[in-house]
Design a protein that fits this description.
Blueprint: H1 2-25, H2 30-42, H3 49-53, H4 62-75, H5 85-99, E1 113-123, E2 133-137, E3 140-152, E4 161-168, H6 174-189, E5 195-199, H7 206-214, E6 219-223, E7 228-230, E8 248-250, E9 262-267, E10 273-282, E11 292-300, E12 312-317, H8 328-338, H9 340-352, H10 364-367, H11 369-372, H12 376-383
Parallel strand pairs: 1-5, 5-6
Antiparallel strand pairs: 1-3, 2-3, 3-4, 6-12, 7-8, 9-10, 10-11, 11-12
Amino acid sequence: MKNNSASQASIQASINDFRDHVALSLGSAGGVLLNLIDVLAIGPRPGSPVEMTLSPLWGYRWSSLYTGIDRASQELAATIADHDWLQDLRTERLAWLAAQEIRPVNPATGNWRVRILDATHYPRPKTETVKLGYVHGASGMQVGHGLSLLSQCVGQGSWTLPLEIGWIQPQSHPLAYGRAQLDEFVKRHGWPDKQMLAVDAQYTVEPFLNPVHQLGIPVLGRVASNRVFFLPPPSYPGCGRPRVRARKIKLNDARTLPRIDARQESELADGRRTEVSRWDDLRMRQWPGQRLALYRVIEYQASGKPRYRRPLWLIFVAASREIKSPSPCEGRATYQARLSVEHSIRFLKGDLGLTCGQFNSTEAEGRVQVSRRDGGDGLLVFAGLARAGTDCRREAPGLVAER
């Protein structure tokens, strides 16, 4: 019993020290922000700032909520390229992650580790006090904000660790913001070898792939079944203008497909199987100088009939010519890992409070910045601390704790 008590006391002391470190890292308003995370994480989920300050877990006066968020917003950088206290926390977290001996989550991906870039929508149809844009969601285009998430697969199951979450400005596009986000991320933290970026179909276009390729990031992503590619150009005959591309290949017309360079099959549950084919050297119309690997994934039922009407098409852009393309089965398994981010996004939105009240006051632009600025990933890391059950009530000028 004494050993158990000592062990629990040691764990509690470690949690308290970590929470104190987090509160100090959040600046002068750290106590209020950490208490805010307690309220949001433990629940019940408040529907407005007033309900938040009425929570039994709230340890400050109601005015401290607005003062703390306003003070924290002034200490945040205006853009992702500028330095602020969240960048320090991200650097520490990535250093800790790099020090861990993480085995490949899925042996089917071989030596490749998977990072995922995706954009999600934050619908705000009733908001009138902040600038809004149109974001793409499951039900089509909606009025609201967009979030860009860079995540990494670090464990079994449909869970990913958010490395960085950024708010996409209404005047920006997810592709443009994703390019800038990756550019700043690589400048600050680098990009490990054998670390592949998995993306969806909206990112597999030249305006995104070309700049990301120059950053030294290998990319694998889905392409629509109506896309068109080309064979590499023939050797220069010695006269005339050299060709930049050869015969056209239509993904929705099997008659135009060239000879397959590699093919693998794998057995699935219930007698199902998949057949993955790879073509090693194809070109895009807008980017004819870059080699692409094309993958076709066909899943068959136990009866031998295709499970879906159309196959899944993927392309891989290597960071350099020396890097070999993933095997057909590795390419399929890598893109399957990208699907795990869909489940994570659904729960991360709840942890960020994006599924609760809109806080549509005249000062909403500043007061909801903890969810909308480029610091959402920091709050997600700290959300689990609230479940430790400790209370963090610090006092600072303008922030008054209840007695």
